[in-house]
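Translate structure to sequence.
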């Protein structure tokens, strides 16, 4: 299924949103709850799946929805379609501060793999699938990085990341990073999760028990502030903040 051709604008700096411009009949799909605003003339509808399963039939939709349900993802996606003559706009934003990465799938070989929950929205025709790290082992215990999302198609897709985003081009090199700092990578990148070596580093290094290892030829997107790291700090300081408020 050929993806709809959509125009877009990234708005903001530290806490970005993406505004999608739709011509009459064009559709953009998004995770439930990601929409910020939309202009009159745009119809939205919650549907099972991303709309790419038309050729697969009913059982294809059920299988895809089952995988999303198992991994804690919403079974439904919201489809926004412009029914008005001319151009209409709809905007989406992530549920936490950060950046939005626009990716033209046609320029990336037709697909990318990204961190679970990083998908924000895409042109209709983009297939949003759940992928599991093939190398189980430590990956099964690695938490972040074991369950991934696979986006495929020939149109625009948008993923969100925490903090600042860095794009790196690997040409046979190897890159190791915190599993939560990974945003996405293209085909041609070999991805695995490895346990930290050495008991001292494992328990006192502060970098976690696992690292993501990426090697090969392709692009890798890295985020400076994973949501899990931000949430851990908030939870860690919550009792202290609650105590100081009670003292007042």
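Result:
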């Amino acid at each position: 299924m050929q993806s709809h051709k959509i125009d877009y604008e990234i708005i903001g700096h530290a806490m970005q949103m993406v505004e999608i411009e739709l011509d009459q009949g064009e559709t953009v799909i998004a995770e439930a709850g990601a929409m910020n605003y939309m202009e009159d003339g745009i119809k939205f509808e919650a549907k099972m799946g991303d709309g790419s399963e038309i050729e697969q039939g009913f059982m294809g939709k059920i299988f895809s929805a089952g995988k999303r349900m198992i991994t804690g993802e919403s079974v439904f996606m919201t489809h926004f379609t412009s029914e008005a003559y001319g151009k209409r706009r709809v905007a989406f934003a992530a549920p936490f501060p950060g950046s939005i990465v626009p990716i033209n799938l046609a320029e990336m070989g037709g697909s990318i793999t990204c961190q679970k929950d990083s998908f924000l929205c895409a042109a209709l025709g983009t297939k949003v699938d759940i992928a599991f790290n093939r190398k189980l082992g430590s990956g099964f215990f690695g938490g972040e990085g074991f369950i991934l999302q696979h986006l495929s198609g020939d149109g625009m897709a948008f993923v969100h990341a925490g903090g600042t985003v860095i794009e790196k081009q690997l040409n046979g090199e190897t890159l190791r990073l915190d599993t939560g700092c990974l945003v996405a990578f293209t085909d041609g990148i070999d991805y695995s999760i490895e346990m930290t070596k050495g008991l001292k580093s494992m328990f006192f290094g502060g970098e976690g028990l696992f690292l993501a290892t990426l090697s090969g030829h392709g692009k890798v997107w890295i985020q400076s502030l994973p949501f899990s790291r931000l949430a851990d700090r908030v939870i860690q300081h919550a009792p202290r903040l609650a105590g100081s408020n009670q003292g007042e």
